[in-house]
């Protein structure tokens, strides 16, 4: 009897996770469309660089706030605002400042344009457009601090904002965390290129030095949404929804798997574009000592996690400067997706990332390593151990 009720509750949990996954994927598809519209607007604009600087000097744009408001509103409507708890990157400080009226107006307009299109994604639209106080409320409702018990969503509305403003790679990342474990991960990658070689092609900076032919916009802007449910042993990829098309679940999803390459000399590793976010010299030393021969693939955002899950690269490494604390929304969705696609993600000591300690990945040892399998993973961890003491990180 007890076993039966346990089974029943397990099934109920699964059913609710399936529903939540579906809502999450629909919301991320909608967010991808929102970001594409804003990114096109930014690139075609001259003069205004299209971003504000936060206190830590990192950029934030209309898209970051608008996606956060839209996803927050959609999740609250679909799951009931009392049942929804969200941890997300952005707050309303800059938007509520006197003098930011124009900015807020632009966010409200973007959110309403996006929500008006919600039925195309199988989601409810508001009966009347949201006012600015409702938009601010939707953003600031994402004020959960996470923690070890209960369920909450972790949202990075635009991950890789720097890539976004440069017309390059970025991601929309949404994860559901339950009792400290990531149970669902959804990653929208609107600029994921058709050919993996173009992942390392940087529109703005590498145009001159790259030997690759510049991709045309229609082949470049392929995009995908990748998602996984923990324990299913499967990760799925959908194409982005075409303009004017209606979303039909599961929108031609197909399974993705990590690469089978475990020979370091054939493996490709990816890392952040900016030296300030991860030490390029340390990973170059590691790459050399492990016998990695290919050039690193420097890609903005969690698209790096997507590349491993899709089998387009084998290793992702990030070694931030000492003292920098990684945030859960920068990794949660990607970790679940890589694991279900057959890969491994740990810190540099080989321990799983801990999503149960609040907004930071507390206790992270040195850096983050993701790989397509245990053979490569063990080699990286051994290489880190032997290189660490001689490095000055
Ligand atoms: N100093 C420092 N060190 C390490 N990491 C930092 C640092 N500052 C910011 N961040 C976080 O890195 C997120 C972007 O990571 P990326 O891998 O896209 O970096 S890069 O732009 O390709 O260099 C970025 O996410 P977004 O803010 O969502 O873009 C930040 O959360
Ligand atoms: Mg981020
Ligand atoms: Mg972000
Ligand atoms: Mg940011």
Description:
By secondary structure, the protein is of the alpha+beta class. It folds into 2 domains: 2-256, 2-Layer Sandwich (Fructose-1,6-Bisphosphatase, Chain A, domain 1); 264-388, D-Maltodextrin-Binding Protein, domain 2 (3-Layer(aba) Sandwich). Helices cover 36% and strands 16% of the residues. The protein has 11 helices and 14 strands. The protein has helices spanning 2-44, 62-79, 93-96, 101-116, 132-140, 161-165, 217-220, 280-290, 303-310, 332-340, 374-388; strands at 52-53, 59-60, 86-88, 151-159, 171-178, 181-189, 224-229, 235-239, 254-256, 269-271, 297-298, 315-318, 344-347, 368-371. The strands form 3 sheets. A 7-stranded mixed sheet has the order 3-4-5-6-7-8-9, sandwiched between helices. It has a 5-stranded mixed sheet with strand order 11-10-12-14-13, sandwiched between helices. It has a two-stranded antiparallel sheet with strand order 1-2. β1 and β2 (59-60) form a beta hairpin. α1 packs across α4 and α2 crosses α4 (101-116). The longest helix is centred in the first third of the chain and has 43 residues, at 2-44. The chain is globular and about 60 Å long. The mean pLDDT is 92. It binds 3'-phosphate-adenosine-5'-phosphate sulfate (PPS) and magnesium ion (3 copies).
């Amino acid at each position: 009897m007890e076993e039966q009720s346990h089974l029943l509750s397990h099934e109920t949990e699964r059913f609710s996770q399936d529903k939540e996954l579906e809502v999450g994927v629909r919301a991320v598809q909608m967010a991808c469309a929102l970001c594409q519209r804003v990114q096109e607007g930014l690139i075609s604009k001259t003069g205004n660089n299209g971003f504000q600087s936060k206190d830590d000097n990192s950029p934030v744009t209309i898209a970051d706030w608008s996606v956060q408001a839209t996803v927050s509103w959609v999740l609250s409507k679909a799951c009931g605002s009392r049942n929804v708890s969200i941890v997300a990157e952005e707050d309303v400080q800059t938007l509520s400042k006197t003098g930011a009226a124009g900015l807020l107006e632009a966010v409200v307009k973007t959110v309403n344009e996006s929500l008006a299109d919600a039925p195309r994604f199988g989601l409810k639209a508001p009966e009347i457009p949201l006012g600015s106080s409702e938009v601010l409320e939707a953003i600031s409702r994402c004020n959960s601090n996470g923690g070890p018990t209960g369920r909450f969503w972790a949202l990075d509305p635009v991950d890789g904002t720097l890539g976004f403003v440069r017309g390059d790679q970025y991601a929309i990342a949404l994860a559901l965390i339950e009792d400290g474990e990531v149970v669902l991960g959804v990653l929208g990658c609107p600029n994921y290129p058709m050919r993996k070689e173009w992942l390392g092609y940087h529109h703005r900076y590498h145009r001159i030095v790259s030997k690759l032919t510049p991709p045309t916009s229609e082949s470049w802007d392929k995009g995908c949404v990748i998602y996984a449910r923990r324990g299913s042993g499967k990760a799925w990829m959908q194409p982005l929804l075409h303009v004017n098309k209606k979303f039909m679940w599961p929108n031609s999803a197909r399974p993705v798997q990590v690469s089978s390459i475990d020979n370091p000399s054939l493996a490709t590793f990816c890392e952040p574009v900016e030296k300030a976010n991860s030490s390029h010299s340390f990973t170059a030393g590691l790459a050399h000592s492990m016998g990695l021969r290919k050039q690193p693939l420097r890609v903005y955002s969690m698209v790096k996690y997507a590349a491993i899950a899709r089998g387009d690269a084998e290793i992702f490494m990030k070694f931030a400067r000492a003292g920098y604390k990684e945030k859960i929304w920068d990794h949660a969705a990607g970790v679940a997706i890589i694991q279900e696609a057959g890969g491994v993600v740990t810190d540099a000591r080989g321990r799983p990332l801990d999503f149960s300690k609040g907004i930071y990945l507390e206790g992270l040892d040195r850096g983050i390593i993701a790989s397509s399998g245990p053979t490569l993973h063990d080699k990286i961890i051994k290489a880190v151990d032997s290189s660490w003491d001689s490095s000055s990180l």
